[in-house]
Amino acid sequence: xxxxIVYIKKxxxxxxxxxxxxxxxxxxxxxxxxxxxxxxxxxxTVSEKFRGHGVGGSLLKIMEDDCALAxxxxxxxxYYPEGASNEEVSSFYKKHGFEIxxxxxxxxxxxxxxxxxxxxxxxxxxxxxxxR
Length: 132
Prior knowledge:
Layout: E1 5-12, E2 15-22, E3 25-35, E4 38-46, H1 55-69, E5 74-79, H2 86-95, E6 99-102, E7 107-112, E8 123-126
Parallel strand pairs: 1-8, 4-5
Antiparallel strand pairs: 1-2, 2-3, 3-4, 5-7, 6-7
């Protein structure tokens, strides 16, 4: 990929969204909420064309780093199938250190004790207009 992927972090109230942007095109995002020592992963998605290039993993790494900084004890999430098989989803989360609690239409995932991540090489910017 000749262009660099930029990760734009937006915080609106207590919901954090990180958009992955390639050129002028949004190619994926993650959104999550951190509260009272826990994090709730609402959604991580990457355009089919960009899957397998590390975009989803980078989004999870940025979230996990935020969680570690906030001293989060656990990250919990649900996944509803949208263009990926249960096997692909399970494999993706397991590759990134998450446990699968339930598979199927509503796949439940989780991770305890998130750790600081090496984010060097990722172009991360904050959208200051959204931060309040």
